[in-house]
Amino acid sequence: MSESTVERPQERIPTGVPGLDIVLHGGLLRGGVYMLQGRPGAGKTILTNQMCFHHAAQGGRVLYSTLLAETHERLLFNLEPLSFFDTSRIPEQIAYLSAFSTLEQGGLKGLVEVLRREARARKSTLLVVDGLVTAEESAQSKREFKKFIHELQIHANLVGCTILLLTSSSAETVGPEHTMVDGVLELFDNRLGRRAERELEVRKFRGSSYLRGGHAFQITQDGIVVHPRIEALLQNPSRLDPCRGERVSTGIAQLDKMLHGGLPCASTSVLFGPTGAGKTTFGLHFLDESSKSEPGLLFGFYETPPPPAPQGPCAGARPGEEAPAGHLRHDVALAHRAHPPSRSTASPLGASRSPPRPSRGHSPSSRVMRSRPPGPGARVCSRSGAASREDPPRGGR
Protein backbone atom coordinates (compact mmCIF):
# COMPACT_ATOMS: atom_id res chain seq x y z
CA MET A 1 0.00 0.00 0.00
CA SER A 2 3.02 2.26 0.29
CA GLU A 3 2.77 3.22 -3.38
CA SER A 4 -0.99 3.83 -3.31
CA THR A 5 -2.27 7.30 -4.08
CA VAL A 6 -6.04 6.66 -3.76
CA GLU A 7 -7.27 5.54 -0.35
CA ARG A 8 -10.60 4.95 1.34
CA PRO A 9 -11.39 7.32 4.19
CA GLN A 10 -10.45 5.60 7.45
CA GLU A 11 -10.60 6.78 11.02
CA ARG A 12 -7.17 7.77 12.27
CA ILE A 13 -5.54 8.23 15.64
CA PRO A 14 -3.04 11.09 15.32
CA THR A 15 0.22 10.39 17.13
CA GLY A 16 0.78 14.04 18.03
CA VAL A 17 4.48 13.57 17.28
CA PRO A 18 5.69 16.42 15.01
CA GLY A 19 6.53 14.97 11.60
CA LEU A 20 5.38 11.41 12.34
CA ASP A 21 1.77 12.01 11.29
CA ILE A 22 3.13 13.37 8.02
CA VAL A 23 5.12 10.16 7.50
CA LEU A 24 2.03 8.07 8.33
CA HIS A 25 -0.29 10.26 6.23
CA GLY A 26 -2.46 11.17 9.21
CA GLY A 27 -1.58 8.76 12.01
CA LEU A 28 -2.36 5.18 13.03
CA LEU A 29 -5.55 3.48 11.88
CA ARG A 30 -8.10 2.98 14.66
CA GLY A 31 -8.34 -0.66 15.74
CA GLY A 32 -4.95 -1.63 14.30
CA VAL A 33 -2.12 -3.50 16.00
CA TYR A 34 1.29 -1.88 15.52
CA MET A 35 4.77 -2.86 16.56
CA LEU A 36 7.39 -0.31 17.61
CA GLN A 37 10.85 -1.79 17.77
CA GLY A 38 14.39 -0.63 18.30
CA ARG A 39 17.46 -1.26 20.42
CA PRO A 40 17.60 -0.07 24.04
CA GLY A 41 17.99 3.71 24.14
CA ALA A 42 16.53 4.22 20.66
CA GLY A 43 13.60 6.27 22.01
CA LYS A 44 10.72 3.77 22.08
CA THR A 45 9.48 4.65 25.57
CA ILE A 46 9.57 8.40 24.95
CA LEU A 47 7.83 8.08 21.59
CA THR A 48 5.09 5.83 22.98
CA ASN A 49 4.40 7.96 26.05
CA GLN A 50 4.34 11.09 23.89
CA MET A 51 1.64 9.44 21.79
CA CYS A 52 -0.23 8.36 24.94
CA PHE A 53 -0.33 11.84 26.49
CA HIS A 54 -1.41 13.38 23.19
CA HIS A 55 -4.16 10.79 22.85
CA ALA A 56 -5.34 11.56 26.39
CA ALA A 57 -5.28 15.30 25.66
CA GLN A 58 -7.64 14.61 22.74
CA GLY A 59 -10.10 12.86 25.05
CA GLY A 60 -8.87 9.27 24.66
CA ARG A 61 -8.10 6.76 27.40
CA VAL A 62 -4.85 4.79 27.60
CA LEU A 63 -3.78 1.55 29.31
CA TYR A 64 0.02 1.21 29.47
CA SER A 65 1.07 -2.30 30.55
CA THR A 66 4.68 -3.29 31.24
CA LEU A 67 6.37 -6.70 31.30
CA LEU A 68 9.62 -6.92 33.26
CA ALA A 69 10.52 -3.32 32.48
CA GLU A 70 11.58 -0.41 34.68
CA THR A 71 9.33 0.38 37.61
CA HIS A 72 6.49 2.80 37.00
CA GLU A 73 7.91 5.19 39.58
CA ARG A 74 11.20 5.32 37.68
CA LEU A 75 9.41 5.58 34.34
CA LEU A 76 7.40 8.61 35.43
CA PHE A 77 10.47 10.18 37.02
CA ASN A 78 12.32 9.99 33.68
CA LEU A 79 9.32 11.39 31.77
CA GLU A 80 8.72 14.32 34.11
CA PRO A 81 11.28 16.73 32.50
CA LEU A 82 9.52 16.42 29.11
CA SER A 83 6.98 19.13 28.29
CA PHE A 84 4.23 16.71 27.19
CA PHE A 85 4.17 14.98 30.59
CA ASP A 86 1.03 15.89 32.56
CA THR A 87 0.45 14.25 35.94
CA SER A 88 -3.20 15.34 35.90
CA ARG A 89 -3.86 12.67 33.24
CA ILE A 90 -2.76 9.88 35.61
CA PRO A 91 -4.50 7.58 36.47
CA GLU A 92 -7.91 8.76 35.20
CA GLN A 93 -6.97 8.89 31.50
CA ILE A 94 -3.60 7.14 31.48
CA ALA A 95 -3.27 4.03 33.67
CA TYR A 96 -0.01 2.12 34.13
CA LEU A 97 -0.29 -1.62 34.78
CA SER A 98 2.47 -4.07 35.68
CA ALA A 99 1.47 -7.43 34.16
CA PHE A 100 4.66 -9.45 34.61
CA SER A 101 3.39 -11.38 37.64
CA THR A 102 0.26 -12.29 35.69
CA LEU A 103 2.45 -13.53 32.83
CA GLU A 104 4.50 -15.69 35.18
CA GLN A 105 1.49 -17.24 36.86
CA GLY A 106 -0.99 -17.56 34.01
CA GLY A 107 1.20 -17.48 30.92
CA LEU A 108 0.14 -15.76 27.71
CA LYS A 109 -3.48 -16.85 28.17
CA GLY A 110 -3.66 -15.19 31.57
CA LEU A 111 -1.97 -12.06 30.20
CA VAL A 112 -4.54 -11.71 27.41
CA GLU A 113 -7.40 -12.06 29.87
CA VAL A 114 -5.98 -9.35 32.18
CA LEU A 115 -5.36 -6.96 29.29
CA ARG A 116 -8.89 -7.47 27.98
CA ARG A 117 -10.49 -7.04 31.39
CA GLU A 118 -8.53 -3.90 32.31
CA ALA A 119 -8.97 -2.31 28.88
CA ARG A 120 -12.74 -2.84 28.99
CA ALA A 121 -13.04 -1.62 32.57
CA ARG A 122 -11.15 1.57 31.76
CA LYS A 123 -12.75 1.96 28.31
CA SER A 124 -9.28 2.27 26.82
CA THR A 125 -8.98 3.39 23.22
CA LEU A 126 -5.19 2.92 23.17
CA LEU A 127 -3.44 -0.12 24.66
CA VAL A 128 0.35 -0.37 25.03
CA VAL A 129 2.24 -3.59 25.78
CA ASP A 130 5.82 -2.67 26.71
CA GLY A 131 8.13 -5.69 26.70
CA LEU A 132 6.88 -7.98 23.94
CA VAL A 133 10.20 -9.86 24.04
CA THR A 134 9.34 -11.07 27.53
CA ALA A 135 5.99 -12.37 26.31
CA GLU A 136 7.69 -14.15 23.41
CA GLU A 137 10.16 -15.81 25.78
CA SER A 138 7.24 -17.10 27.86
CA ALA A 139 5.61 -18.79 24.86
CA GLN A 140 5.99 -22.55 24.65
CA SER A 141 6.03 -22.43 20.85
CA LYS A 142 5.83 -20.00 17.95
CA ARG A 143 2.25 -21.07 17.44
CA GLU A 144 1.32 -20.06 20.99
CA PHE A 145 2.93 -16.66 20.52
CA LYS A 146 1.08 -16.12 17.23
CA LYS A 147 -2.15 -17.06 19.00
CA PHE A 148 -1.38 -14.38 21.61
CA ILE A 149 -1.00 -11.73 18.88
CA HIS A 150 -4.19 -13.00 17.25
CA GLU A 151 -6.15 -12.65 20.51
CA LEU A 152 -4.98 -9.04 20.80
CA GLN A 153 -6.12 -8.38 17.22
CA ILE A 154 -9.58 -9.74 18.01
CA HIS A 155 -9.85 -7.42 21.01
CA ALA A 156 -8.72 -4.45 18.92
CA ASN A 157 -11.35 -5.17 16.27
CA LEU A 158 -14.19 -5.74 18.72
CA VAL A 159 -13.80 -2.58 20.80
CA GLY A 160 -11.96 -0.33 18.32
CA CYS A 161 -8.89 -0.13 20.53
CA THR A 162 -5.55 0.61 18.86
CA ILE A 163 -2.66 -1.49 20.22
CA LEU A 164 1.05 -0.68 20.37
CA LEU A 165 3.54 -3.48 20.99
CA LEU A 166 7.04 -2.41 22.09
CA THR A 167 9.97 -4.73 21.51
CA SER A 168 13.75 -4.56 21.32
CA SER A 169 13.93 -7.14 18.53
CA SER A 170 15.02 -6.16 15.03
CA ALA A 171 13.22 -6.56 11.73
CA GLU A 172 16.39 -8.14 10.33
CA THR A 173 15.13 -11.37 11.90
CA VAL A 174 11.51 -11.73 10.82
CA GLY A 175 9.39 -13.34 13.52
CA PRO A 176 5.78 -14.49 13.47
CA GLU A 177 4.65 -11.21 15.03
CA HIS A 178 5.94 -9.24 12.02
CA THR A 179 3.63 -11.08 9.65
CA MET A 180 0.53 -10.65 11.82
CA VAL A 181 0.61 -7.01 12.97
CA ASP A 182 -0.82 -4.18 10.86
CA GLY A 183 2.31 -2.05 10.95
CA VAL A 184 5.96 -2.06 11.97
CA LEU A 185 7.87 1.09 12.95
CA GLU A 186 11.57 0.83 13.78
CA LEU A 187 13.90 3.29 15.49
CA PHE A 188 17.63 3.37 14.79
CA ASP A 189 20.60 5.10 16.39
CA ASN A 190 23.21 5.14 13.61
CA ARG A 191 26.87 5.98 14.04
CA LEU A 192 28.31 8.24 11.31
CA GLY A 193 32.00 8.48 12.13
CA ARG A 194 32.14 10.28 15.48
CA ARG A 195 28.54 11.45 15.17
CA ALA A 196 25.30 9.62 15.87
CA GLU A 197 22.01 10.18 14.07
CA ARG A 198 18.61 8.91 15.12
CA GLU A 199 16.38 7.54 12.37
CA LEU A 200 12.82 6.25 12.06
CA GLU A 201 11.57 3.94 9.33
CA VAL A 202 8.10 2.57 8.63
CA ARG A 203 8.70 -0.96 7.45
CA LYS A 204 5.07 -2.00 7.13
CA PHE A 205 1.72 -0.18 7.26
CA ARG A 206 -1.39 -2.01 6.12
CA GLY A 207 -4.37 -0.15 4.74
CA SER A 208 -2.61 3.14 3.99
CA SER A 209 0.20 4.72 2.09
CA TYR A 210 3.14 6.30 3.94
CA LEU A 211 6.47 7.99 3.28
CA ARG A 212 9.01 5.25 2.70
CA GLY A 213 12.66 5.24 3.69
CA GLY A 214 14.49 6.52 6.74
CA HIS A 215 13.51 9.79 8.43
CA ALA A 216 15.78 11.55 10.91
CA PHE A 217 14.38 12.41 14.33
CA GLN A 218 15.52 14.18 17.47
CA ILE A 219 14.74 13.77 21.14
CA THR A 220 14.14 17.27 22.51
CA GLN A 221 12.71 18.79 25.67
CA ASP A 222 9.31 18.57 23.98
CA GLY A 223 9.77 14.91 23.11
CA ILE A 224 10.48 13.41 19.72
CA VAL A 225 10.47 15.48 16.53
CA VAL A 226 10.57 13.61 13.21
CA HIS A 227 12.01 15.26 10.09
CA PRO A 228 10.46 13.59 6.99
CA ARG A 229 12.85 13.23 4.07
CA ILE A 230 12.38 16.13 1.65
CA GLU A 231 12.56 13.95 -1.47
CA ALA A 232 9.84 11.69 -0.05
CA LEU A 233 7.70 14.52 1.30
CA LEU A 234 7.79 16.50 -1.96
CA GLN A 235 7.74 13.62 -4.42
CA ASN A 236 4.41 14.78 -5.85
CA PRO A 237 4.37 18.38 -7.16
CA SER A 238 1.76 20.71 -5.76
CA ARG A 239 1.13 22.21 -9.21
CA LEU A 240 1.80 21.38 -12.84
CA ASP A 241 5.01 22.40 -14.56
CA PRO A 242 4.35 25.90 -15.94
CA CYS A 243 6.88 25.51 -18.78
CA ARG A 244 5.53 22.49 -20.66
CA GLY A 245 8.40 22.27 -23.12
CA GLU A 246 8.74 26.00 -23.77
CA ARG A 247 12.04 27.52 -24.90
CA VAL A 248 13.79 30.62 -23.53
CA SER A 249 15.72 32.86 -25.91
CA THR A 250 19.45 33.33 -25.31
CA GLY A 251 19.27 36.82 -26.80
CA ILE A 252 21.33 35.71 -29.79
CA ALA A 253 19.21 34.89 -32.83
CA GLN A 254 21.76 32.63 -34.52
CA LEU A 255 22.30 30.61 -31.37
CA ASP A 256 18.55 30.30 -30.77
CA LYS A 257 18.26 28.83 -34.25
CA MET A 258 20.99 26.29 -33.46
CA LEU A 259 19.21 25.36 -30.22
CA HIS A 260 15.82 25.02 -31.95
CA GLY A 261 14.35 28.04 -30.20
CA GLY A 262 16.64 28.59 -27.24
CA LEU A 263 17.31 26.98 -23.88
CA PRO A 264 14.70 24.70 -22.26
CA CYS A 265 12.50 26.56 -19.79
CA ALA A 266 13.33 26.00 -16.09
CA SER A 267 16.65 24.35 -16.94
CA THR A 268 20.22 25.05 -15.82
CA SER A 269 22.94 25.74 -18.39
CA VAL A 270 26.68 26.41 -17.94
CA LEU A 271 28.84 28.51 -20.27
CA PHE A 272 32.57 28.16 -19.75
CA GLY A 273 35.69 29.30 -21.54
CA PRO A 274 39.02 31.12 -21.07
CA THR A 275 39.31 34.75 -20.02
CA GLY A 276 38.19 37.12 -22.75
CA ALA A 277 36.19 34.52 -24.66
CA GLY A 278 32.98 36.52 -24.24
CA LYS A 279 31.24 34.76 -21.34
CA THR A 280 30.12 37.97 -19.65
CA THR A 281 28.87 39.46 -22.91
CA PHE A 282 26.97 36.27 -23.64
CA GLY A 283 25.37 36.44 -20.20
CA LEU A 284 24.39 40.07 -20.74
CA HIS A 285 22.73 39.15 -24.04
CA PHE A 286 20.71 36.58 -22.14
CA LEU A 287 19.72 39.07 -19.42
CA ASP A 288 18.81 41.65 -22.04
CA GLU A 289 15.79 39.48 -22.87
CA SER A 290 14.41 40.05 -19.36
CA SER A 291 11.04 41.70 -18.81
CA LYS A 292 8.79 42.62 -15.90
CA SER A 293 7.07 39.27 -16.18
CA GLU A 294 10.43 37.48 -16.53
CA PRO A 295 12.94 39.43 -14.41
CA GLY A 296 16.70 38.98 -14.61
CA LEU A 297 19.38 38.56 -11.93
CA LEU A 298 23.17 38.82 -12.26
CA PHE A 299 25.67 37.68 -9.65
CA GLY A 300 29.27 38.78 -10.20
CA PHE A 301 32.40 38.11 -8.14
CA TYR A 302 35.32 39.54 -10.09
CA GLU A 303 34.72 43.28 -10.50
CA THR A 304 36.61 45.72 -8.25
CA PRO A 305 35.22 49.00 -6.85
CA PRO A 306 34.41 51.53 -8.13
CA PRO A 307 32.25 49.62 -10.61
CA PRO A 308 33.16 49.90 -14.29
CA ALA A 309 30.69 51.33 -16.75
CA PRO A 310 28.09 48.82 -17.89
CA GLN A 311 29.10 47.14 -21.13
CA GLY A 312 27.13 45.56 -23.93
CA PRO A 313 23.49 44.73 -23.27
CA CYS A 314 21.90 45.94 -20.02
CA ALA A 315 23.87 49.19 -20.27
CA GLY A 316 21.53 52.07 -19.68
CA ALA A 317 23.41 54.66 -17.62
CA ARG A 318 26.83 56.19 -17.28
CA PRO A 319 28.90 55.59 -14.13
CA GLY A 320 27.36 57.38 -11.16
CA GLU A 321 24.04 58.01 -12.93
CA GLU A 322 20.71 56.36 -12.31
CA ALA A 323 19.69 53.83 -14.90
CA PRO A 324 16.70 54.80 -17.01
CA ALA A 325 13.36 53.38 -15.94
CA GLY A 326 13.00 49.77 -16.97
CA HIS A 327 16.75 49.01 -17.00
CA LEU A 328 19.06 47.17 -14.68
CA ARG A 329 21.55 49.07 -12.56
CA HIS A 330 24.50 47.58 -10.69
CA ASP A 331 26.14 48.32 -7.36
CA VAL A 332 29.20 46.94 -5.61
CA ALA A 333 28.58 44.68 -2.61
CA LEU A 334 24.85 45.55 -2.69
CA ALA A 335 21.78 43.66 -3.81
CA HIS A 336 19.80 46.50 -5.36
CA ARG A 337 16.23 46.37 -6.66
CA ALA A 338 15.53 47.80 -10.08
CA HIS A 339 13.42 47.01 -13.12
CA PRO A 340 14.67 44.69 -15.87
CA PRO A 341 15.46 45.97 -19.38
CA SER A 342 12.52 47.02 -21.53
CA ARG A 343 14.42 47.70 -24.75
CA SER A 344 17.33 46.04 -26.47
CA THR A 345 20.65 47.85 -26.53
CA ALA A 346 22.69 44.78 -27.42
CA SER A 347 25.81 45.18 -29.48
CA PRO A 348 27.05 42.37 -31.74
CA LEU A 349 28.22 39.26 -29.88
CA GLY A 350 31.77 39.73 -28.65
CA ALA A 351 31.74 43.52 -29.02
CA SER A 352 31.71 45.93 -26.10
CA ARG A 353 30.47 49.49 -25.89
CA SER A 354 33.57 50.70 -24.06
CA PRO A 355 36.92 49.09 -23.23
CA PRO A 356 37.07 47.47 -19.81
CA ARG A 357 38.49 49.69 -17.10
CA PRO A 358 41.82 48.39 -15.75
CA SER A 359 41.99 47.16 -12.17
CA ARG A 360 42.93 49.80 -9.59
CA GLY A 361 44.40 47.39 -7.12
CA HIS A 362 41.31 47.09 -4.94
CA SER A 363 40.45 43.80 -3.32
CA PRO A 364 37.85 41.67 -5.13
CA SER A 365 34.28 42.44 -4.25
CA SER A 366 30.89 40.91 -4.89
CA ARG A 367 28.67 42.60 -7.47
CA VAL A 368 24.99 41.79 -7.70
CA MET A 369 22.53 43.15 -10.26
CA ARG A 370 18.97 42.34 -9.36
CA SER A 371 15.63 43.20 -10.84
CA ARG A 372 13.59 41.56 -8.09
CA PRO A 373 13.75 38.28 -6.17
CA PRO A 374 13.83 35.47 -8.75
CA GLY A 375 10.52 33.75 -9.30
CA PRO A 376 9.31 31.08 -11.69
CA GLY A 377 10.98 31.58 -15.04
CA ALA A 378 13.41 34.21 -13.71
CA ARG A 379 16.68 34.65 -15.57
CA VAL A 380 19.78 34.19 -13.47
CA CYS A 381 23.32 34.83 -14.66
CA SER A 382 26.16 33.96 -12.29
CA ARG A 383 29.70 34.99 -13.14
CA SER A 384 32.35 32.93 -11.32
CA GLY A 385 34.97 31.99 -13.87
CA ALA A 386 32.15 30.85 -16.10
CA ALA A 387 28.83 32.40 -16.91
CA SER A 388 25.88 30.24 -16.04
CA ARG A 389 22.12 30.44 -16.00
CA GLU A 390 20.27 28.87 -13.15
CA ASP A 391 16.50 28.91 -13.01
CA PRO A 392 14.57 28.17 -9.83
CA PRO A 393 13.02 24.71 -9.38
CA ARG A 394 9.90 23.94 -11.39
CA GLY A 395 6.94 25.08 -9.37
CA GLY A 396 6.24 24.59 -5.67
CA ARG A 397 5.76 21.22 -4.04
Can you offer a commentary on this structure?
This protein has helices at 20-23, 44-57, 72-79, 100-121, 132-138, 142-159, 176-180, 230-233, 253-258, 279-287, and strands at 12-13, 28-29, 33-38, 62-66, 94-98, 126-130, 162-167, 183-192, 195-205, 214-220, 223-227, 247-248, 263-264, 268-271, 296-300, 331-332, 335-336, 367-370, 379-383, 387-390. The chain has 397 residues and is of the alpha/beta class. The protein has two domains: 12-233, P-loop containing nucleotide triphosphate hydrolases (Rossmann fold, 3-Layer(aba) Sandwich); 241-397, no CATH class. Helix 4 (100-121) runs parallel beside helix 6.
Under CATH, the topology of the largest domain can be stated as: Rossmann fold
Q: How many distinct helices?
A: 10
What fraction of the residues are assigned to beta strands by DSSP?
Answer: 15-25%
Helix content: 10-25%
As residue ranges, the low-confidence spans are 1-6, 315-374, 385-397
What's the pLDDT, averaged over the residues? 78
The Rg value, from CA coordinates, equals 32 Å
CATH class of the largest domain: Alpha Beta
Summarize the biggest pleated sheet. Answer: 9 strands, mixed
- Envelope shape: elongated
Look at the structure and name the CATH superfamily of the largest domain: P-loop containing nucleotide triphosphate hydrolases
Distance between the ends: 22 Å
Please name the CATH architecture of the largest domain.
Answer: 3-Layer(aba) Sandwich
Structurally, how many domains make up the residues? 2
- Structural class comes to alpha/beta
Biggest sheet, spatial arrangement of strands: 5-4-6-7-3-8-9-10-11
Number of strands: 20
- Series of secondary-structure elements, N-terminal to C-terminal: EHEEHEHEHEHHEHEEEEHEHEEHEEEEEE
